[in-house]
Amino acid sequence: MAKIKMKKKSMSTDMTAMCDVAFLLLTFFILTATAKVPEALPVDTPSSTVQTKLPETDLATITIGKGKIFFDLKGREVRKRTLELMSEKYGVAFTDDDKTEFSLMEGFGVPITSLKQIIEMKAADRSKAGQPGIPKDSLDNQLKEWVYNARIANIEVADKELQFAIKGDAKEEYPAIRKVMDILQDQKINTFNLVTGLRGKDF
Fold it and tell me: How wide is the angle at C-alpha 86 spanned by C-alphas 83 and 90, nearest 5°?
């Protein structure tokens, strides 16, 4: 019996539609993505296997590294109110534009008298400004005042208690971390988060 030969058809696929979809997705991600702002004080956090996430709101972060202390606060209105309270405490005037810009910037590490200069800088220049850190001495403990006033501001604005996180460099000396813990405990803040870098579990 004679075999019937089937004609071979071309198996090429039109990829035009797939390319269109790929470019649409690429355009979408480029337009909606936000650039990562460089950290004011980059630190190498110690390793941990704990995966607890920090809260998105009502949080203040104290970063410790290279002998310096930086302070960051979530919430624009909370930041504005905190700056107003610090302005009243130290008699340093800030304009409405200063307060708005302060509410948008990342963490900072300067004495209150130098804060206006940092606020007026561009975001890219702040990380290169060589910020000396927030004073924490017994004679000039501005970190204590930032913590105290941030708590008041958060209660006034959000009607919630402010939570704290300590982000310390893995190579930082323990007394520097302990000093910050003491400042928190002096204000009856006995619960706070320690920020660590995630690593795989050892089996």
Answer: 140
